[in-house]
Write a structure and sequence with these properties.
This protein has 675 residues and is α+β, with helices and mostly antiparallel strands. It folds into 4 domains: 260 residues, Bira Bifunctional Protein, Domain 2 (BirA Bifunctional Protein, domain 2); 197 residues, no CATH class; 94 residues, Elongation Factor Tu (Ef-tu), domain 3 (Beta Barrel), CATH 2.40.30; 85 residues, Alpha-Beta Plaits (2-Layer Sandwich), CATH 3.30.70. Helices cover 39% and strands 20% of the residues. The protein has 22 helices and 20 strands. Strands 1-2-6-7-8-9-5-4-3 form a 9-stranded mixed beta sheet. Strand 6 and strand 7 form a beta hairpin. The longest helix has 30 residues. It is an enzyme of class 6 (ligase). Its EC number is 6.1.1.7. Belongs to the class-II aminoacyl-tRNA synthetase family. One of its GO terms (biological process) is alanyl-tRNA aminoacylation.
């Protein structure tokens, strides 16, 4: 089922019987009343009678610009402390953030919402949560609105999600919707000190990562402050099924809480005020907060993936004391300041957590925002070093995320700047040709973006310098935002419906032969046993091979707690049959040694080459693959050998330290890393 289809089904259920899907009892007990928005038609709850739901699209303005809606004034670091203290009194445990590089997931590159930390295993009930209930200041990345960053005053590529989560398992019942809405309302009124008459809760539906539920989005002053999801469904191929672990997922942008409490011109001054001042001083940009606020209160209502920039400026000019040219100059300067501040924070966090700019995977987005920052600096002729801005972020973030202070980004950033300059020189002629044409379609833009590293900003800047207009594709960044494709589709969970978890015998490494019963055969070549000695691919180690009867086992994977064996054929076996199973013991031993050796080499590699090392092994060779700004040298190799020898005296069958930019991948990587 598609996300939109799922959400429409839940919205239909909400209209028919809200008592089943949202905490009506608690809402009424707290004194809120249900209303219907006269603009969008959605149902919402408020303490005072209202005919509009509170979303800026319906009320027309961000009213918190004109009148304070919170009696609190605090930085987002201080607000996190208050939030954590508030929920600790409700018996919640604060946990450390997860890495933003989501290596435990096969469907996303980066954590996009805090609930990603716990999907799929905790939510499905196959793993214990680190605490229950809990709160976490989880850094999240989202790259689908890059063109809006710096323009709307509210869009970010990275943000801190204040997460409140509670998991209701068979073993432990925590709390669900009736209690959760009381907690968050109390926090908003007493902790964040939002004025009661400003607060609204809009009924809606949420779906993502294979799960879904009803939700209450809460607004004040026209701004969405957060969303409390009552996760109760698994998304099947053709229907919604009950989720065994009913989950409370309350996520809110910490930066937005700080913004409404501090009443700054944009979210950026509330998020990284020292960095903003640093960039403005370096760039000699001196607009007053009052003037910025006057313009950005209107800019925030536009989506610049859909709205033409100059058209928006003309609308704003009619509402302010500035003319179109003055607004254009201010917004051009401040957009650059804000974007550089946002993008450099994202790069710092990504590099610390183990992801580098590149033209593949999640690195694709990182390279894009780095080049976007460099583009702004070049187009403005500002004397700003990206590395200096990153160092300012480290200082500003050290209270909440002290680990970032240890991150060394200079080598990576400087190498990327070299590549940027090379590509800029190479692409000048291509850009000029499209500016002359005056337009570019989505396919052409995508090709330029992926193969040459040309961005929309490159084209727009060149057109502006030439005094021309260029028509670019709408929603381009949203359309090219990269996500992984899962090897095992969500629909495949239907294949194991009703099957008990497989008994795991493979932890006994000496057990290489046994008997098992075939529970299910899935054509063309998948077999599920009641118990197995075959180790599935996980934890960085390849799966066992061997035999089920005379049929060769070529791969083994785990889906939730069910282990699936892939055979070369399923001839001569049937469901219900007791069969002989045998592991290729020589291959298992070799893989085991390789796996141990990989950890040794990785440790040595990180000491010599840096933190960007990961593993990729098979039965013939061990690869300690690393992303690095520079090539591996003979000196590096000698150091690695010495470090490894100091750690353990072990002859490895074959050890290859492989530069991510060379050797076996050289033909492919030439197009990936050198653009």
């Amino acid at each position: 089922m598609e996300k939109n289809e799922v959400e429409e089904i839940i919205r239909g259920k909400l209209k028919e019987n809200p008592d089943e899907l949202i905490p009506v009892k608690s809402l009424k007990k707290m004194g809120l009343k249900r209303n219907t928005c006269s603009v969008c038609g959605k149902n919402f709850w408020s303490f005072t009678p209202k005919d509009k739901c509170g979303d800026v699209d319906c009320i027309g303005d961000y009213t918190f610009f004109k009148e304070r809606i919170s009696e609190l004034s605090a930085s987002y670091v201080d607000i996190w402390k208050l939030f954590s203290q508030f929920f600790s009194k409700k018996k919640h445990t604060e946990i450390k953030r997860y890495p933003v590089v989501a290596r435990w997931r096969d469907d996303i590159y980066f954590v996009e919402a805090a609930i990603d930390d716990f999907a799929p295993y905790v939510i499905k009930g196959t793993a214990e949560p680190p605490a229950n209930p809990l709160v976490v200041p989880q850094i999240c990345f989202r790259f689908n609105d890059i063109n809006n960053v710096g323009l709307t005053g509210r869009h970010l590529t990275s943000f801190v999600m204040a997460e409140e989560a509670a998991f209701n398992t068979k073993e432990k019942k925590t709390y669900f919707d009736e209690e959760a809405i009381i907690y968050i309302t109390e926090w908003l009124l007493k902790g964040l000190k939002i004025k009661k008459e400003e607060l609204t809760f809009i009924e809606d539906a949420w779906a993502g990562a294979g799960y879904a539920g009803s939700c209450l989005e809460y607004f004040a002053g026209g701004l969405e402050l957060g969303n409390q999801v009552y996760m109760r469904y698994i998304i099947g191929s053709d229907k919604l099924e009950d989720l065994p672990t009913k989950t409370i997922d309350m996520g809110a942008g910490l930066e937005r809480w700080s913004w409404v409490s501090s009443s700054t011109p944009t979210i950026y001054e509330a998020t990284f005020p020292k960095v903003i001042n640093f960039i403005k001083n370096k760039a000699n940009v001196n607009y007053s907060d009052k003037d910025i606020k006057e313009v950005y209160q209107y800019l925030g209502k536009f989506d610049f993936e859909k709205t033409e920039f100059n058209e928006a400026l003309e609308i704003i000019a009619n509402k302010t004391k500035f003319n179109t040219a003055e607004i254009k100059k201010m917004v051009s300067d401040m957009r650059a300041v804000y974007s550089i501040a946002d993008h450099t924070r994202t790069l710092l966090i990504a590099i610390h957590d183990g992801s580098l700019p590149s033209n593949v995977g999640g690195g694709y987005n990182l390279r894009n925002i780095l080049r976007r920052s460099l583009n702004f600096i070049d187009s403005k002729n500002w004397k700003i070093d990206i590395n200096d801005v990153i160092n300012e972020h480290k200082k500003e973030l050290k209270t909440l995320y002290p680990e970032l202070m240890q991150t060394e980004c200079t080598e990576v950033i400087n190498k990327e700047i070299e590549r940027y300059k090379e590509s800029k020189s190479r692409n000048a002629k291509i850009i000029s040709e499209y500016v002359k044409k005056g337009k570019i379609d989505n396919n052409e833009m995508l090709k330029l973006y992926e193969s040459e590293g040309v961005t929309i900003d490159d084209l727009q800047d060149a057109a502006e310098r030439a005094g021309k207009n260029i028509i670019i594709p709408e929603n381009f960044y949203s359309n090219i935002n990269r996500t992984k494709t899962s090897e095992i589709k969500k629909q495949d969970t239907d294949l194991i419906k009703g099957i008990k978890k497989t008994e795991k015998l493979f932890y006994d490494e000496e057990l290489t032969e046994s008997r098992a019963k075939i529970i299910k055969i899935i054509k063309p070549n998948m077999v599920i046993l009641d118990k197995t000695i075959f180790y599935p691919e996980m934890g960085g180690q390849k799966a066992d091979n061997g035999f089920i009867e005379k049929n060769r086992v070529t791969d083994v994977k785990v889906l939730e707690d069910v282990i699936i064996h892939y055979l070369d054929n399923i001839d001569g076996i049937k469901e219900g049959q007791n069969v002989d199973i045998k592991v290729d013991s020589e291959r298992r031993e070799l893989l085991r040694r390789h796996h141990t050796a990989t950890h040794i080499i990785n440790q040595a590699s990180r000491r010599i080459l840096g933190q960007f090392v990961y593993q990729n092994i098979n039965e013939k060779k061990l690869l300690a693959v690393y992303d690095s700004a520079n090539s591996l040298t003979k000196i590096n190799s000698s150091e690695l050998t010495n470090v490894s020898d100091d750690n353990i005296k072990l002859i490895l069958s074959e050890v290859y330290l492989l530069n991510y930019l060379s050797r076996e991948f050289s033909d492919y990587i030439s197009d990936v890393q050198d653009k």
